[in-house]
Amino acid sequence: xxxxxxxxxxxxxxxxxxxxxxxxxxxxxxxxxxxxxxxxxxxxxxxxxxxxxxxxxxxxxxxxxxxxxxxxxxxxxxxxxxxxxxxxxxxxxxxxxxxxxxxxxxxxxxxxxxxxxxxxxxxxxxxxxxxxxxx
Length: 135
Hints:
eight-stranded antiparallel sheet, alpha+beta, Pnp Oxidase, Chain A, 36% strand, 2 helices, globular
């Protein structure tokens, strides 16, 4: 978990279509933003990301679905401008299948490798899919 401060406006003009990572900023109860670089894939008018089901970002989204997103690099350095969005925790099996399929198409062997080790460690069932809708 990181504070937004180090990443404030390093932005260059970069859009989500060509980005490999998305900086997802969620809010703590005290209003402080926490930004986390995540994998994402666009599908059916939304963006899908996943996380461990008990991760801080999941808890924060459960409390407040208002988020901000921006394209970034693997370290969270911004490559574009922040956009307001709304996040939803996905529980529907069909939508989960679509979201994970989109992530597998985008990240290919990397996602397959992550899935393999998650299955091996028994953590794959503890994942939480998140749908993000831009404002």
